[in-house]
Amino acid sequence: MEKAHKPSSDAAGLRRRAEERLKEKQKNQRSAGSGGVAGKQEAAQEPQRLIQELQIHQIELEMQNEELWESRAEVEAGLELYTDLYDFAPVGYFTFDREGAIRRVNLSGAGLLGTERTHLVNRRFGQFVSEDDRFIFNGFLQKVFTKRDDASGKASCEVALKEQRDRPHLHESPGGRYDDTGATRRQVFIEGTVTAEGQECRAMMTDITERKQAEEEIQKNQAQLSNALEMAHLGHWEYDVANDLFTFNDQFYNIFRTTVEKVGGYAMHSSEYAHRFVHPDDMDMVGEETRKAIETTDPHFNRQIEHRILYADGKVGYISVRFFIVKDSQGRTVKTYGVNQDITERKEAEQKLQDTLESLRKAVNTTIRVMVSAVETRDPYTSGHQTRSAGLARAIATEMGLPQDTIEGIRMAGSIHDIGKLSIPAEILSKPTKLSDIEFRLIKEHARQGYEILKDVESPWPLAEIVHQHHERMDGSGYPGNLKGDEILIEARILAVADVVEAMASHRPYRAGLGIDAALKEIEQNRGVFYDSDVVDACLTLFREKGFKLEKTWL
After folding, report:
1. What is the number of other CB atoms lying within 10 angstroms of the CB of residue 110?
2. Beta carbons of 1 and 79 less than 8 angstroms apart
3. Which of 95, 99, 114 is nearest to 162 (CA)?
4. DSSP string, 204-251
5. End-to-end CA distance of the chain, in Å?
6. Which of 31, 82, 170, 255 is the most exposed place for a label (fewest CB within 10 A)?
7. In the sheet where 155-160 sits, what is the strand order?
8. What is the DSSP string of 145-196?
9. Residue 100, by phi and psi: left (phi above 0), alpha (psi -120 to 50) or beta?
């Protein structure tokens, strides 16, 4: 270790300092003495010079001795510091001979092996290594002593130590992790280099047990994820933007009914992926979605799309793709990744369901036409009224922005909403004079009778309930159930307004038509009382702003 003060190698300087120290001593002596005779001094001059030389030399020796003691103290302090750093370092330090025997070891190294340091010297390190890993340690020694690992003679290895059971309590150092209550099995990383003489290897040993456990846990989680993806029939993929490269897992290839061996690897460029697996008609859409993912500034971007695919045998299928993005520190998308799921069976089932619904719609339409014809035969006025009411109801529902399927149900219900009048005598329906109370009560039964006729008809829409409620009013004053507000289906609320407007505007056997203005005035005055406010607003907009004509409506 470098010293703070070097022993003087400058003889002239040393002598000068010695002479100065001697003069100081003599001065002190003269001050303390009685003073001498000048003659005697001259007589004794020669011996005094000799004595002075001897004194100077003695002082030189004393000064050199002082410097040596200072240097020794510094060396001992440095050695003590080195010993502390060596023994209490957070890693284990070992010195091995060519046979793997331990020559020196620090406290942390002893702690890793679970043995007192004094019991380790001259013991072979291989005794502490698990049997499966001894050949690894022996290979490490061979490499480090033959300098075959690299030019510097360094070599490294990872080995598992033997389990340490019920060992006595040891002095705990920063590098020693002791567990006196049970067994431990540690993984260590050893890196060493040969000494200059080539007879010993100095090695540093690090406890990597926690790191290995974490790696094993990650591998376990990855295996579980892979199994979960396989069980869920999900294919995982990643896209490296910079290199334009896709990578996939095995399940991805299972989805496309092929294997990684047949395709030729787990990676391929985007153009090859599109050519192999994406349906030609969907390539533009898939490419556009990929571009959006790459260019997005949203760090939490995620997207799900569905598109057609080509199986390995050329057949067409469907997949659902959910994908996410990874950005770098500059906010650039460097990777997209996600999962694919084969939804071909679901799509086929949906198509079958759609075909079934379409067939059912056709059957319902046929049934409706038969019913309309039956009503028309008995009462031409009622038939025309239903047709025009259905057309107006459909127009109101469209103006309100309702779903197309709901609009279709309203039109169907409107075209047969008076089907219950089939149970009423024809002479009452066509009576040209005012109805009696009994006759009016019979007329009011047509809503209930219509429900009874339609309740068992298979239909995608609640036709029977719409017909049952089309004379209900928002304030509960309607019939037959005295329903209020939201208790009434929206379809029935729309049909109620269309029914009133058409009935008032058109001719009846017992009166002439009152006209469209009177009909609109009726629903406007009773907006929110008898009739739904939104429905009334839509109806008024149709007639007053968009030029709707009642007489031009049709089924």
Report:
1. 24
2. yes
3. 114
4. EEEE-HHHHHHHHHHHHHHHHHHHHHHHTTEEEEEEETTTTEEEE-HH
5. 107
6. 31
7. 102-105, 92-97, 200-207, 187-194, 155-160
8. HHT-SSTT--EEEEEEBPPB-SPPP----TT----TTS-B--EEEEEEEE-T
9. left
Q: Distances in Å between the alpha carbon of 129 and those of 135, 440, 523?
A: 10, 104, 95
Residue 364, pLDDT score = 73
The beta strands (E) that lie in 116-211 are given as 155-160, 187-194, 200-207
301 contacts 325 by C-beta, under 8 angstroms? yes
Residue 278, CA atoms < 13 Å, CB-side half-sphere? 18
Mean pLDDT of the chain: 80
pLDDT digits (tens, 9 = 90+) for 315-367: 999 999 988 888 888 888 888 888 888 889 889 998 888 888 788 777 777 77
Which tokens is 222 given? Answer: 């990855």
Instruction: Give residue for tokens 């991805």.
Output: 252
Fold of 217-342: Beta-Lactamase (3.30.450)
Half-sphere exposure of 507 (CA within 13 A, CB side): 7
Scan for tokens 């290897």, then name that residue: 201
Contact between 265 and 288 under an 8 Å Cβ cutoff? The reply is no
CA angle 464–465–466, rounded 5-degree value? 95
Q: Right CATH number for 92-207 from 3.30.530.20, 3.30.450.20, 3.30.70.1350, 3.30.457.10? A: 3.30.450.20
CA angle 142, 143, 146 (to 5 degrees): 80
Lookup: tokens for 367: 């049934």
Sites in the chain below the pLDDT cut of 50: 1-9, 34-39, 43, 149, 166-182, 552-555
- Residues 64 and 61: their CA atoms lie apart, in Å, by 5
Phi, psi of 329 (to 5 degrees): -65, -20
Query: Which conformational region is residue 172 in: left (phi greater than 0), alpha (psi within -120 to 50 degrees), or beta?
Result: beta
Provide CB contacts within 8 A for 215, sequence distance 6+: none
Pairing label, strands 102-105, 92-97: antiparallel
Q: What is the 3-state secondary structure (H, E, C) of 465-486?
A: HHHHHCCCCCECCCCCCCCEHH
Q: What is the distance between the alpha carbons of residues 517 and 357, in angstroms, rounded to a whole number?
A: 40
Task: Using alpha carbons, list the distances in angstroms from residue 265 to 261, 270, 296, 463.
Answer: 6, 14, 30, 58
Q: Compute the distance between CA of residue 141 and CA of residue 191 in angstroms, rounded to an integer.
A: 10
CB 150 within 8 A of CB 183: no
Question: Strands 234-240 and 200-207: what pairing?
Answer: unpaired
365-552 is a CATH 1.10.3210.10 domain = yes
Q: Can you tell me the distance from the alpha carbon of 529 to that of 511, in angstroms, rounded to the nearest whole number? A: 26
Predicted TM-score (pTM) of this structure: 0.43
